Amino acid sequence: MAETESLADWMSNLNEKFTKIPLSQLAIPGSHNAMAYSLDMDSSVLEPKKLKALDKMFSTFLRPIVKKWGTAQEKNISEQLDAGMRYFDLRVAGKPESSDLFFYHGLYTTMTVKEGMTELETWLRQHTKEVVILSFSHFKEMSDDQHTELTSYLKELFKTKLCPKPQVPSLKDCWENGYQFILSYDNRNVDDPVLWPRIEYWWADNSDPKEVISYLNNKKQIGRPEGLFVAGLNLTFDGNDMLLYLTKSLKEKTMPAYLLLLDWVKEQHPGSDKESINIIAGDFVGVNSFAQDIIQLNNADSGS
Q1: In this model, does residue 304 exceed pLDDT 70?
Q2: For the range 286-289, what are the long-range contacts, defined as Cβ-Cβ under 8 Å and sequence gap of 24 or more?
Q3: Active site residue: 32, 127, 138, 147, which one?
Q4: Which Gene3D superfamilies does this one have (predicted)?
Q5: Is 32 a catalytic residue?
């Protein structure tokens, strides 16, 4: 447990040099489909399209399969924070029969958006020098009014702890101004000083870890964006894969792939040059050395 505990405050423990550079030049561990640990078997299938079409007739058969392949995390939000995650990929959907908003991945989550964000905010109140990047995107079944309601709620919950755009802050900037949240909201109809635009996510859309690494290396050759961005280590399986591997799960396919993926991580470096990385996001975070390996890249660079 000691290792996980030490990661709960890794930002406040960074070498001082790293507290003075923009967050876009740090190596930051992130959680892909961060809330996909509480999927609801009683909810309808939202994706993939092929299976959504079959849900009405075959829900008893399909939903357990979608849950096995949709569950991308095992740790809850507080445990992910304890394990060092500081970027969260958050996908939100409205539910026709409810006034609440939910997260989703394949199925809706049992947890509402308000419950998830309250838990996150409570954790950060106890870790005042940690800063998180929240990326809200992939909205489904949401009206303009619901977008307004959600952004108003988030602004009210996080208040003055929201860092305004467009200048990516350093940790020192955040600490001096009391900022703990960078809130990215990928909706063109919403504009607000504290709502950042979409954060670029390098997504290989592939189930083979070798192909994922090859894709990420190609993106690095072209060169990173200037601001915050994410390299996704997540493997992707479509509806055909799910039906092909009926007895398998996303976890069974993902965990062995981490051997290769973490070897790639250890070769990376943060910074501002063309081939530097920034946020690295993955599935099933907090169950191996994923966060430790990424955070370590900051220390490895401290001699330069």
Answers
A1: no
A2: 286/4, 286/74, 286/75, 286/79, 286/80, 286/82, 286/83, 286/84, 286/85, 287/74, 287/75, 287/255, 288/255, 288/258, 288/262, 289/262
A3: 32
A4: Phosphatidylinositol (PI) phosphodiesterase
A5: yes
